[in-house]
Amino acid sequence: MKSTQRLWRWLGLIFVVSFGALGYLGWQIYLTAPPIPKAVVTSDGEVLFSGEQVQRGQQAWMAAGGQQLGTVWGHGSYVAPDWSADWLHREATALQAIRSAEQRKVAPNLTDADQAAINARVRDEMRRNTYNESTGTVTVSAERAQAIREVAGHFDGLFGTEPSLAKLRDQYAMTEGALPEKADRQALTAFFFWTSWAAATNRPGETELSYTSNWPHEPLVGNTMSTSAAVWSMVSIILLLAGIAAMLWLHGADKHEEEARVPACDPLLGAKATPSMKATRKYFFTVIGLMLLQIGMGAITAHYAVEGQAFFGIPLAQVLPYVVSRTIHTQIGIFWIATVWLATGLYVAPLLSGKEPKFQKLGVDLLFWALIVVVLGSTFTGWLGTLQHRGVDFSFWVGNQGLDFTSMGRVWQILLFIGLLFWVFLLGRALWPALKKPSETRGLIAMVFLSATCIGGFYATSLTWGQHTHYSMIEYWRWWLVHLWVEGFFEVFATAVVALIFTNLGLIRAASANRAIIAETIVFLFGGILGTLHHLYWTGTPTSVIAVGSVFSALEVVPLTLIGLEALQTYRRSKAVPWLNAYKWVILSFVAVGFWNTVGAGLLGFAINPPASLYYVQGLNMTAAHGHAALFGVYGMLGIGLMLFCLRGLYDRALHADKFLKPAFWSLNIGLAMMVFLSLLPAGIYQAWASISKGLWYARSPEIIHSPVMETLVWLRVPGDIVFAAGSVLLAVYAWRLLRPARRAAAVPAGVTPSLAKR
Predict the structure, then answer these.
(1) Predicted local distance difference test score (pLDDT) of residue 113
(2) In Å, how far from its chain's centre is CA 551?
């Protein structure tokens, strides 16, 4: 007991100190973010852009698709360019051409030395910081102003209807007239210029270091990897190796307790579903429908990398453009995984406490229909706003905000936040009897409730930015949501629920599970909270973010090294007695989570996390490989395992057609592996080579994206996609058979479950 109390104190200390440090660094990001000038002017006083245009351009880009249509500072989608890198390269080459034309007036035949001198002059001009803090202006030469106008004309036509750029739009998977209003397109060019200016201009007080720490790689302007990125990458690798060694040493030196004696019969076999537990059925069937929708949208989105505005010749982009299909694909993935975990919490709460609170079923039903309204409403309004170009206000409030994994409009975010708080209330009132009563599992139940409270409360970070918030701060808060909410507290919640499941099945001892879950949460949050910063290396942040982010993102990987080992031990325990065969595919789903945690989150995650790696591969398919393996492999398989466990208790054992689960399980995992290792990872490596050799602009250019190699790798996704989709269909068939009328009559009758909490 004393040992457990000490662990709880350590957890509280880590939580407070880590979030204090994260908040302090957020304040530093706010203070040192690239300034938005009041005006960009020529040396003659002509105004090229105003500060209002830069801010309006940010909104216009998001309304046109934002991070679903290319990237800015490396965050977003992968078919269109990184607009910061693209502008930077175009402006540098245009300025070189202007300076070369000037020199030819003096010496028609330029020597190599002449050209080198011109290139050096261009480099120095683009790196020189001419921002005047007192006047709030950035001053550029007349020649650079000419180059800026040329590049601005290109982007004006690209986001408009310029016929000569139709092929390029198709290669970028852009629709014609993405921004119909001329004023919005002009503002867009101001925003793109500002992001590239921050990427090349030396930060005050620094030598040869831009606001974005010299990202992206662009030799023309002297953007090469900084010393801090190289040094802290080496430190992170050393810390990773040291952390793994320490973890293995502690694991080996720890006195292993006697394993739990597995009961002779299933402890959950006699449990009866209460009305609120039975009300969660519709959540799980909806989850499968959303999963199928996500897979379909993923196939369409991937195909747009070959045919930018068509699907096997069908002009599908007229009604379902790339921006919409990718938004649905990423957003629905978060929705269905989160819905599984919400429903699991509502299912297990009465199971653990043994009591059904009054009106609990009504609350579960209301929450379900509220979630349906949010999912369908946000999807529809996002599609409508994009297709009909409803403008920046519609986009921000009810349409598509243009931010990866959190794209729904502000109204829908507020409604979802209210829904999550209501879920915490329902969960808390159902768990309260178990929380009040002393028991061996009370610590685990407390962890479930605390993590659920964080899930509800931390979604408030989606409300922290506004339409005029600085882009660096939008990224800071967005990663609070994506990294801490999805990858942090949901994982703690799910891990605690799994521990409770295994405890009540008799696979692990309650006391051991209590200590283990708190210790694992300490280790995970110790690296995970400040590890959030590894997403922010190049978003206009100070170099301290590189130092802290690289160190703690390395430590974040350390506990994943043991998860695969724990998964094997879990699988071995699952063979202890014959009755556990009923939970075979539940347990194997958790084993798959261990595998993908080690490979997808650990191996592929650390492959891109060190600054020296991310400097070259941010915004390339290396990130997509990690994202697919980690998001579905870890969180998706975890959700499927939890869903199968709940369905096992909601329907009579005789109704489950387990013959469909075996091919479904293997198809999902093999299909995912094929998708990642035959297509996404090789594509990312191929792009990384191009990024290192010539620059990020080249790795994201049509010359690479639509090269025979890349298009072949896109087609190599098809076999994996088919196998993966087949697994999802088989899972749907399994669920459908539970709904057949003849089987429904034999469903488990409602009743009150006796408390399963260990006394």
Answers:
(1) 92
(2) 20
C-alpha torsion sign, points 354, 359, 365, 370: negative
Helix (H, G, I), strand (E, B) or coil at 394: helix
Q: Tell me the mean pLDDT in the region 720-731.
A: 97
Distance from C-alpha of 409 to C-alpha of 521, rounded to nearest angstrom: 32
Q: What is the pLDDT at residue 2?
A: 55
Tell me which of 94-103, 211-220, 263-272 is least confident.
263-272
Within 322-409, residue ranges assigned H as helices are: 322-353, 360-388, 392-397
Q: What is the DSSP letter of 576?
A: S
* Distance between CA atoms of residues 365 and 276, nearest Å: 8
Please check whether residue 555 is in contact with residue 526, taking contact to mean a CB–CB distance below 8 angstroms.
Answer: yes
**Would you give the distance in Å from CA 216 to the centre of its chain?**
21
Distance in angstroms (rounded) separating the CA atoms of residues 59 and 467? 7
Q: Reduce the secondary structure of 424-488 to three states and give it as a string.
A: HHHHHHHHHHHHHCCCCCHHHHHHHHHHHHHHHHHHHHHHCCCCCCCHHHHHHHHHHHHHHHHHH
Give the integer Cα–Cα distance in Å for 759 and 514: 14
Q: How confident is the model at residue 754 (pLDDT cuts 50, 70, 90)?
A: very low
Q: What's the CA angle centered on 230, arms 227 and 231, to 5 degrees?
A: 85
Using DSSP bridges, classify how beta strands 47-50 and 39-42 pair: parallel, antiparallel or unpaired: antiparallel
Closest CA to 497 of 340, 285, 277, 271: 340
Compute the distance between CA of residue 264 and CA of residue 255 in angstroms, rounded to an integer.
27
Asked if residues 373 and 415 have their Cβ atoms less than 8 Å apart, the reply is yes
Does residue 571 contact residue 585 with C-beta atoms inside 8 Å? Answer: no
Q: Which pLDDT score is estimated for 577?
A: 78
Q: Phi-psi bin for 173: left (phi > 0), alpha (psi -120 to 50), beta?
A: left
Neighbour-count burial for 394-428, b at 16+ CB within 10 Å, e otherwise:
bbbbbbbbbbbbbbbbbbbbebbbebbbebbebbb
Q: Span 600-629, mean pLDDT?
A: 94
Is residue 282's pLDDT more than 80? Answer: yes
Element (H, E) at 72: strand 71-72
Angle at CA 558, nearest 5°, toward 552 and 561?
155
Per-residue pLDDT tens for 94-119? 999 999 999 888 888 889 999 999 99
β-bridge pairing 137-140 and 131-132:
antiparallel
* E runs forming strands in 77-186: 131-132, 137-140
Tell me the average pLDDT of the chain: 91
- Kindly report the number of other CB atoms within 10 A of residue 746's CB atom: 11
Burial classification of residue 253, based on how many CB atoms lie within 10 Å of its CB (0-12 exposed, 13-18 middle, 19 or more buried): exposed
Q: Residue 745 pLDDT more than 50?
A: no
Q: Give the amino acid at 390.
A: R
Give the global pTM: 0.93
Name the pLDDT band for 571 (thresholds 50, 70, 90): low
- Note the pLDDT of residue 133: 95
Contact 108, 573 (CB under 8 A): no
**How far apart, in whole angstroms, are the C-alpha atoms of residue 358 and residue 508?**
33
Q: Tokens for 416?
A: 């979802």
User: Could you give the CA distance from residue 687 to residue 68 in angstroms, rounded to a whole number?
Assistant: 19
